Amino acid sequence: MAKKVTKKGYIISYSEGPHPDMGQLKDEKGNIYSFLIGYTKPEVQDLLQKPEEWEDTFVYFETWEENGQAKTGNLRLKKDDSPLFGWAYFKGGRQGYEAALEELKQEALPEIWGYHSDIDKNIPASKKYPILHNYFQYTFEKLTREEGGIIYDGEMAVFNTGLVNYLYQAIYAVFKKNTLQPEKSPWFFDRFVVSETTDGKELNKRFSKLPGKARFFSSLRDLVYECDENNQPKKPNVDFEHILFDNFERLPKKFVKEKMRILELPESLYDQLRSMTSKEREENFKGENKDLTYDLVKAMNDALSLTLLRLSWNYKTAIPMWYPRTGKICFLLPLSLSRKSRPSSHNPGKPEVALIVEWQEKSQNYQAHTILPLNLAYSNARLICRPDSDWLQTDNFLENESDEDSEE
């Protein structure tokens, strides 16, 4: 029997059609694998219908050889396969984690942690507050990589959540040694503790020094966008065609349809393009719809030029974020693509997507990776701190959601 190898990656394309539904995965080394939907778990089939979540949702899969052909299958999410859940048990399992997340939300300085303006109070906290859920998970993951990020004394473990209460006092997560089922997880969640309360003072007595927040940056270059010798923001290297082929579903629908109407293309083309694999989409854009490719890429380049002018006026336009996939600091640059989103003499404009760029030492310039919808961009930026920005605000992506729903 052929040996199966488990790999980790993310979905890059999926196509529904008269033939067996197929998709593509990219592993952590950049290798591409094709799969059939029949070889996926139900939670992955649900994920396939949410392309905006592909970039930030890891999928586990198996590869093997059969009759001389490479096969890919058993796609699954392993929802609880996070460093935090492997390290600590929450009383009541997942429900216990949801209750802890709700408690943290109530204890912390008020802010918006959700993607939607109307939240169903009956859904789990991780669904109501996905930004907080991602923040808590990735903050813990980052702290595990830092010396002294989590402190222990044999019976207790403590880490700084990076959040504060209304008096700006630090909130710590406290865990106790799991003596009942240590083989499952060495610790179990006990409570959240505010630094200046009675419980916080007890922690100070127990430990000589309480841990600091997660350190996401180490130099000024991580926080301020680089300029050239003329003190102008460096123009990043961007392959907008690659973004168009591989991340088409992240482009604002109204932006794409505006360009389609100018070229008098059928409305149905948009859904056809969304349903194609990356390879099929590339062939289409380079073939029968090359004029649409030209118009979309030109508009994205024009939007970037405007962003760089905005950045030269206000350095805070470039927002630092921690990119979970690479574990590195990147910058988010706003792009206003559709006609109504662009600035005018009476309107400052509202960006619709964020371009992720990362500094490259060899080229001494920035390289663009992909684009993100504003809600995911905000979630990644929030890991470092709450964005103090005139464009990456929760109101903007809540409004964008409403605008997208009413676009047609």
Structural key phrases:
408 residues, alpha+beta, OB fold (Dihydrolipoamide Acetyltransferase, E2P), 3 domains, 5-stranded antiparallel beta sheet, 5-stranded mixed beta sheet, 14 strands, disordered C terminus
Describe this structure in words.
The chain has helices at 42-48, 83-87, 94-107, 125-128, 130-144, 198-206, 240-246, 253-262, 268-275, 278-286, 290-313, 374-381, 394-405; strands at residues 5-15, 22-27, 32-36, 59-66, 69-76, 88-89, 150-152, 156-164, 170-177, 187-194, 319-323, 328-335, 353-360, 365-373. It has 408 residues and is an alpha+beta fold. It has three domains: 5-76, Nucleic acid-binding proteins (OB fold (Dihydrolipoamide Acetyltransferase, E2P), Beta Barrel); 83-206, no CATH class; 222-405, no CATH class. The strands form three sheets. The chain has a five-stranded antiparallel β-sheet with strand order 3-2-1-4-5. Strand 1 (5-15) and strand 2 form a beta hairpin. The longest helix is centred in the C-terminal third of the chain and has 24 residues, at 290-313. Mean pLDDT is 86; it is low at 401-408.
Short description:
With 408 residues, the protein is α+β, with helices and mostly antiparallel strands.
Question: What is the strand and helix layout of this fold?
Answer:
Layout: E1 5-15, E2 22-27, E3 32-36, H1 42-48, E4 59-66, E5 69-76, H2 83-87, E6 88-89, H3 94-107, H4 125-128, H5 130-144, E7 150-152, E8 156-164, E9 170-177, E10 187-194, H6 198-206, H7 240-246, H8 253-262, H9 268-275, H10 278-286, H11 290-313, E11 319-323, E12 328-335, E13 353-360, E14 365-373, H12 374-381, H13 394-405
Parallel strand pairs: 6-10
Antiparallel strand pairs: 1-2, 1-4, 2-3, 4-5, 7-8, 8-9, 9-10, 11-12, 12-13, 13-14
